[in-house]
Amino acid sequence: MNKKNSVFIATSLDGFIADENGGIDWLNSIPNPENNDMGYVEFINGIDALVMGRTTFETVLGFDVDWPYSKPVFVLSNKLKKIPESHKDKAYLIKGSLTEVLAKIHEKGYEKLYIDGGTTISSFLKEDLIDEMILTTIPILLGGGSSLFGELPNKLNFELAGSKTFLNQITQNHYKRKK
Questions:
Q1: Out of 145, 156, 169, 179, which could bridge 19 as a Cys pair, Cβ 3.0 to 4.6 Å?
Q2: In the chain, how many domains are there?
Q3: What torsion, rounded to 10 degrees, do the Cα atoms 101, 106, 111, 117 define?
Q4: CATH number of residue 162's parent domain
Q5: What does the alpha-carbon distance between residue 168 and residue 142 come to, in Å, rounded to a whole number?
Q6: pLDDT, tens digit, for every residue of 132-143?
Q7: Could you tell me the residue range of the domain that residue 100 belongs to?
Q8: Is 129 a domain residue?
Q9: Closest to 124 (Cα-Cα) out of 28, 3, 23
Q10: Are the C-beta atoms of residues 53 and 71 closer than 8 Å to each other?
């Protein structure tokens, strides 16, 4: 079975993925003159598709860049009625329970999934559907904002699979679910 749900996300030292206004400018607080991707390209090359929530999708749409994904993006939303025309063949609206959503995506042949967005990651963790997490920690305390982790119904054990340092300040830890 090659099915795998992976997280690749950055947090502040105090565990936030966005500041109190939803901003993510702090992600660039450490100078990166050579534009080191910190393993992102290698990670994205190893997945088949992305699953993200509406808020993350709308955030990405708001970036002043071309659509950054070459893989299909499945957008979880009960509020969004349709994908904008500009992204019709790039992103797909999907609804249902997470197990139903995964079954639909797997039926399309996508097994290695990148789970993105705070609420979406939390939902997957609550149902114990995350197999690995690559967490990049930016050395800044935000003091508030959108937390990556919320309350869970059960304890989930992960083990450290690797650790790297980028730009002499940013740490990245790779955890695998231990069942």
A1: 145
A2: 1
A3: -20
A4: 3.40.430.10
A5: 20
A6: 999 999 999 999
A7: 4-21+35-177
A8: yes
A9: 3
A10: no
